[in-house]
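Crash report, auto-generated. Payload:
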Amino acid sequence: MGVFSKTCEYAIRSVFFIAHRTASGNRVGIKEIASGIDSPEHFLAKILQDLSRKGIVQSAKGPNGGFYMDDAALKRPLADVVEAVDGKSIFTGCGLGLAYCSETNPCPLHHEFKAIRNQLKDLLEQTRIIDFSENLNLGITKLKK
Amino acid sequence: MGVFSKTCEYAIRSVFFIAHRTASGNRVGIKEIASGIDSPEHFLAKILQDLSRKGIVQSAKGPNGGFYMDDAALKRPLADVVEAVDGKSIFTGCGLGLAYCSETNPCPLHHEFKAIRNQLKDLLEQTRIIDFSENLNLGITKLKK
DNA sequence: TTAATAAAAGACCAAAAAGTCTTTTACTTT
DNA sequence: AAAGTAAAAGACTTTTTGGTCTTTTATTAA
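Recovered output after restart:
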């Protein structure tokens, strides 16, 4: 089990992939995305349908259709993708799963955990999707297994 | 989904609970642990059997039996509990689930993620179980929902 | 030495996450 | 208008995680 669910991992990877391919105004089909990020095609289709409904990515049916991202989507922080898929509990939840854990009623890990969680939050909130895809353009980072 | 699995959350909470009660040399039964940390009794029993097999906690059957922790167990780092239950992938795995992600072949989040993961690792490795249970003694932190 | 106690073991069930497959809808080009 | 294309939708299956229940084994104290 990772920090993100498998669904969310695929979502992030596909968003990076689409952002990368879409910069030039193109659209890209699921088959290509799925093979580009090493994910099950039909499973990814469902994830992208969801992301599309939520406005994280855009899509068009029919010939020359596919997925793409408009300018607003490219400028969104990665946190929006994560929150759309896994919810915001990752940014706020107690490390030990305690519902009433808080500043005034902390679990033994509360303060230490909060610091780490906030760093993850900052990372995801302060970096835009387009920022990450820059390194993909340079061929420095990759999205396949 | 949190950082740890539900099983791991219960494991950590129960270990803290046992550590807290065991300081005075006592043993504590599952019923008491389960109600003390708000967990399903039989599910916790299985978790503790496993932790006992792995030497994270000690146990004794029969009257006056129960779970306890010897000195060596109390001085173990929390990381040992987490690793026993969730494995070490949490300390080393790629944030995007990529098997071949590494320093020389990094995913777009690799470096930023590594920094955060290492902090979690340090926290869990550098603090002993007994250190956490001190605050429980003082009544500052708690283990219930 | 037997009755009570408490963990160990294992069979079983439920829910959620992950993944597959088929059909439908929308769009575009000829 | 028709044929082809590609996403949307939805039914379905599998696997993993989380959880329950019953039986067995070991221990101890009367």
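Post-recovery validation: Residues 5-7, 40-43, 46, 60-65 of chain B lie near DNA strand D (CB under 10 Å from a C1').
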